[in-house]
Automatic annotation (TrEMBL):
NCBIfam families: ahpD_dom. InterPro entries: AhpD-like, AhpD_core, CMD-like. Residues 12-97 form the Carboxymuconolactone decarboxylase-like domain. It holds the Pfam family CMD. This is Carboxymuconolactone decarboxylase family protein. PANTHER family: CARBOXYMUCONOLACTONE DECARBOXYLASE-LIKE DOMAIN-CONTAINING PROTEIN, SI:CH211-175M2.5. It comes from the Bacteria.
Length: 145
């Protein structure tokens, strides 16, 4: 089967996903989470899913928002570094749990660093990012220099 650009084949479905993503971003803001944390979650989800298109996009977005290259370099192994706050660590672990279903026993991320609203916001952000990764990978979006 040839690669099909999902966004061009069914633009109304693409627009619905865009609306979901916009609402997930708004939930992050409403929950009082840092925009850089949202980018880290998007990057980590995209790393897990192997989505080069989204990795490039959200790494660039993170840099524009002031993220450091040191933190970006170690986000794939965040649990081994001392670069991330307890809230960031909890959010990254939660995003991994949402992405890597089936859910492992226990909630390693649930250390009280996130409020219920923040847990919901990060979960929706990860759900939306997983959807975007699947659109980009399935559509074979080009990623070149």
């Amino acid at each position: 089967m040839n690669a099909v650009n999902l966004s061009k084949q069914h633009p109304t479905v693409y627009q619905a996903l865009l609306a979901l993503s916009t609402q997930a971003d708004a939930a992050v803001t409403e929950a009082g989470l840092d925009p850089l944390l949202a980018e880290l979650v998007k990057i980590r989800v995209s790393q897990i899913n192997g989505c080069a298109f989204c990795l490039r996009m959200h790494t660039r977005d993170a840099v524009q928002k002031g993220e450091t290259t040191d933190r970006l370099a170690v986000v794939a192994a965040w649990w081994e570094s001392q670069y991330f706050s307890p809230q960031e660590r909890a959010a990254l672990a939660l995003a991994e749990e949402v992405t890597d279903l089936p859910v492992p026993a226990g909630h390693d991320w649930d250390d009280g660093s996130l409020t219920d609203a923040q847990v919901s916001a990060i979960s929706w952000l990860a759900v939306a990012m997983n959807a975007w990764n699947r659109v980009a990978i399935t559509s074979h979006y080009p990623v070149g220099p």
